[in-house]
Each structure stands twice: as structure tokens, then as C-alpha cells.
Amino acid sequence: WEIELEDTVLFPEGGGQPSDTGSLLPLPTGSPVRVDKILRHGLSAVHYCSSPLPVGSEVLVQVDWERRWDHMTQHTGQHVLSGLFDTLQLPTLSWSLTASPSPCYIELPRAPSPAELAHVQQSANELIRAGTRVHVALTLSDETVRPETLPEDYVGGVVREVDIVGVDKGPCCGTHLPSLSALQSVYVYPYTSAVRGTNARVYFVVGPRVLAALAPAAEGLRQVSLELGCAQPEALEKVREVVAGGKEARKREQRAREELAGYVAKDVLAAAETVGEAHVGCLVREDDAPVPLEFLTTVSYRIREALDSEPGKEYLFALASSGAAGAPLIIFGTPELVARAGELVRGRMGNVKGGGKGRWQGKRVEGRWTEEEGKVLREVVRDAVGA
Predict the structure, then answer these.
(1) Which of 31, 63, 291, 380 could be cross-linked to 344 through a Cys-Cys bond (beta carbons 3.0 to 4.6 Å apart)?
(2) Pairing mode, if any, of strands 158-164 and 59-63?
(3) DSSP string, 257-321
(4) Could you give the 3-state DSSP secondary structure of residue 28?
């Protein structure tokens, strides 16, 4: 429900700042009506409410103060940071007041250096400790002195200017604090993210969001240190050691799997039969690998490499495995024989799904390959060649 009041203390979305939330309490008695957002329509603030109210009702407007306080601290903090970045010839291109407790960000034409980020953070906190004042002034304007940032549909003629003494001054419709001392502290994250060309985003939190960011970070570091069995200052180096060890272990595992695939391929070839003019073979094995299809594929490559020494020789092989990660099946060889084998699998094994040309790939829909299904696969490769 859209409700317009004669006047309101709830801030409508604008200037990069989200709207307030709150409630309308009918007077003298009544149940409060929730206000989920407020949008500006021209010079009117339209309240989007949970239920309607009779025209002419008198209401007490109540603001969600925790949300308002959060928005005031982040917005005032943004003005401070933008003013300080201006001294580095880094004008603010845009900014975002995100939902709490996520960090807000300022977009700049280039990424500041770590030293510049540290300098801006230190300077901002010095201004906070000094209790720098924030003044708001209203001036009349016409089209000849209209600020570029003023919305096109705004025709009120009054321009509101926020002045953080000695730091930043400019038009702004947002809610601000009268003194920087109320911000308590500002934290500028020591990294940036690239956007659009050379532009970069600088992330920051102010006031209550600083503690909200610190608590999970400190607890996360504590938990990591406990898992690694080291002191917190040693956690980063320990993590690097674990990551490096993991990479080396995966390389060794890959080499071992490739070596094993070679031995398995030799066993499959040794057990292969000659049906007519073609080599045929079948393998059904247990495999606890997280990606069993990858191992079967490597085995198939080794078999192909061995058979390349007999150009023109027809062949057909079926490789299957069972494990917690699934029950894949690949059929490869002479394309015509693979096509026949695929048709036979579809006709004889209803719980197997798959397809492909030149290489048939599929899987058992559920569970593991049974001994009886292994026999059916062997019959499939023989019958495909003998068809």
C-alpha cells in the first residue's frame, strides 16, 4: 500500500543511500502499520506499507533507529573517505551503501596503492578523534546554478549541502551525523577489486560495522589456528604449507593414477579376445576416485595408444567402474562397432543411460554394476562385432 504523509521523518531512497524502514502508529490508538521502504516521487515521499490507513488519519511516525544509525555512519564515513581520496586526485565516481554488515565501497578511477589506502584510513580516524564537525546548509538555486548531481525531476529550488569542515563539501540529500566523533572508527580494507577499465572499488566499514566485521574475522582466524595447531600469527604460513603440500600430493596422486591406468590397460589388452577380425575387451572394476570417469578415460587412451601400432585393425572395448561417485561406462573403438554396441546397451540394459558417436559414454542410473551386468557388457561387445 502506498501512503503519502503531510510530513515524515523517514528518509526516502536517494543519493546512494537506501531508504529508512519504520512504522506508522495511528493515533490515539491503533495497531502499527509496517513501512518497508520509502521512495521519492517528485517532491513527495511515498511510504510502501503493509496495510492501508484512512485518508486524514493522524499517525506517529517511528523510524527503525538501528538501520538509520547504520546508514548515517556509513554515509558520513563515505563523505570523509571521498574527501581524502580527492586530495590524491582520485575523485569518487560512484559508491554503494550495502546492506549491513557487508562492506560498502567507493569506485575510483584507479586502484590506490596499499600505502595510499593506509594513509586514507589513518587520516580518517584522526579526523574522527578530533571530533570534526559536520554542517548542513540549505541554499536556493535556479537552473543557472543547478548542481550536476541534482535529480532531473527535482524542482524544489532548495539545495542541501553537507560540509565536513576542511574535508568535504557538496550537495547531498542523505542523513548524516553532526560530528565525526560519532563514527567511532573507519576501516578501509587493504585491497581493491577491478571494474570497468582502470576503475577500482575500495571497500570500507564505519562505526558499528567495524565490530561486526572484526568479530567473525577474529573467530575465523582462531578456528583456523586451532585446526592447524599453530599460533595465530603463524596461521598464514601454515596455510601456505598445507596448500603447497596439497598441490604436491595431487600431482603425485595423478602420476600414480596415470601409472596405474597403464597397468590396467595392459591387463585389459592381455585379456582381450579376437572376434572375427576385431579385438574386443571388457572391464568392470571398483573405483573410489572422486571422478571415476576420468580414470576410465585415461585407461582408454592407453589402450588406443597400444592399438595404434596396428593401423586398420578393428577393435571394441567397454570400460565400467563402480564407486561412491557413480557407475560410469565408456565404449570406444571402431565407430561402426561403437554405434552397434550403444544400441545393444540401450536394448538390453534399461538402467543404463548414455550416448555418443565414435565414443559412447553413459552410466548406471543408480547403484553399482552387478556381476550379471558385467556378463551382459561382455556379451554386448562380442555381439556388436559379430552382428
Answers:
(1) 380
(2) unpaired
(3) HHHHHHHHHHHHHHH-EEETTEEEEEEEEE---SSHHHHHHHHHHHHHHHHTTSTT-EEEEEEEE
(4) coil
CA 114, 115, 119: angle at the middle one, nearest 5?
120
How many residues make up the chain in this entry? 387
Bridge partners, residue 23, by sequence: 34, 62
Mean pLDDT of the chain: 92
Map grid coordinates 560498502 to a residue. 104
Report pLDDT for 147: 64
- Structure confidence at residue 24 (pLDDT): 96
The Cα angle at residue 259 between residues 253 and 299, in degrees rounded to 5: 105
Task: Kindly report the backbone phi and psi dihedral angles of residue 277, in degrees, each rounded to the nearest multiple of 5, phi listed first.
Answer: -105, 10
pLDDT tens profile 303-336: 999 988 777 789 999 999 998 888 999 999 999 9
Phi-psi region of 184 (alpha: psi -120 to 50; beta: other; left: phi over 0): left
C-alpha cell, 304: 588406443
Angle between helices 371-386 and 335-348 (to 10 degrees): 140
Domain ranges (residues) in the chain: 2-63, 68-227, 248-386
88 burial (CB, 10 Å; 0-12 / 13-18 / 19+) is middle
CATH for 68-227 (3.40.50.300, 2.60.40.10, 3.30.980.10, 3.30.460.10): 3.30.980.10
Does 68-227 match 248-386 in CATH topology?
Answer: no
Class of domain 248-386: alpha beta
Instruction: Write the DSSP symbol of residue 64.
Output: -
**For residue 387, is pLDDT > 60?**
no
In angstroms, what CA-CA distances link 352 with 300, 342, 369?
20, 10, 10
- List 288's β-bridge partners, or say none: none
170: its cell numbers: 557538496
